[in-house]
Amino acid sequence: MKFTQTLWEENTATYEQIVALPFNQELTNGTLDTNKFKFYVNQDAHYLAEYGRALSIMAAKSPDTKLVLDFIKFAEGAIVTEQLLHGSYFEQFDFELSGSKSPTCLNYTNFLLATCSLKSLEEGMAALLPCFWIYREVGLHILGNTAKDNPFQAWIDTYSGEEFADAVEKAIAITDKLAEEASPTLRAKMKEAFTMSCKMEYLFWESAYRQEAWVI
Ligand SMILES: Cc1ncc(CN)c(N)n1
Predict the structure, then answer these.
(1) CB of 89 sitting under 6 A from ligand 1
(2) What does the pLDDT average to over 169-182?
(3) What is the CATH number of domain 35-209?
(4) How close are the terminal C-alpha atoms of the chain, in Å?
């Protein structure tokens, strides 16, 4: 069995809990409160900026130029394509990027930046993979169950679309290749990083639904 298949199987319960979250249920049937969606989009714009930086760190650390290019393209996708989507929502719902990161957004982005900067390329890749993979699966799941005239259709189309799927497949293939050449100890660390990011993905949606504020 491929390493990434094991990763997915070990974290299926988290994925199922993500799909069942009220945020994603209401995104699916188009009834999500606009303020909750705006909160999410705003935090996600903060997230994507740091995610693009984490991918750029990975590009700089990559041992061969093909991998450098892969990470640069991933970073471009996050900064240009995904942020364009957010730009369209800023317009559609008439608001602007504002404020600072929520506690969960700060925690998740700091985890990614620290892992990609201070740990191995293998652990960095494993930490970044759920950002690709979970979004594709959630996007496809929502696409298969969505209501007609869903106001969040552009979001669904982006993450269930071919362009995003290609990036996901590439990220999965890179992870498998790195795992093939890694020691058992390093593979265990990759699993840890992947699991942590899966949990962070759950928390990101859960915290958007309650529009998480700083208590101090
Ligand atoms: C929190 C989060 N995780 C992942 C993705 C998909 N790149 C995203 N837009 N936001």
Answers:
(1) no
(2) 98
(3) 1.20.910.10
(4) 47
